[in-house]
Amino acid sequence: MENNTDHTDSNNFSPLSVQDVDVDFLPIVYEIIRSVERDFHDNSAKARESQDCSQKVLELQKKFDIARSQIKRLPGIDYNKQDQIKQFEILRTQLRLKRELLQKYRNMCAFETSFK
């Protein structure tokens, strides 16, 4: 998954593909859990680790916000399930008709070449 670091306003209107959406949250979640599980005996180390953990939580929140904005830019995301099914059926019908036209064209070309 691509890490898209350019988040300008003009970029918010261009559609994305699913592969472009950055949803790689696990490394940050792992770091947060690991830092919470550590047991420090020194209070200054605990405070520093707590601050690092808070920073990682903020980083995760920012990553969630970016993913939300990217998901909103996916094509078709504004359709509900019924609209998606309807659009799918329309596209399937178009595909079937185009295949039939291609088959007729191939048959016609084969018919014409058989007379030459």
UniProtKB/TrEMBL annotation:
Claim: rRNA-binding is one of the keywords in the record: no
Annotated GO biological process: regulation of transcription by RNA polymerase II
Highest taxon listed in the record's lineage: Eukaryota
Gene Ontology molecular function: any one: transcription coregulator activity
Primary location class: nucleus
SUPFAM superfamilies: Mediator hinge subcomplex-like
Protein name (Swiss-Prot/TrEMBL): Mediator of RNA polymerase II transcription subunit 9
Protein's organism: Parnassius mnemosyne (clouded apollo)
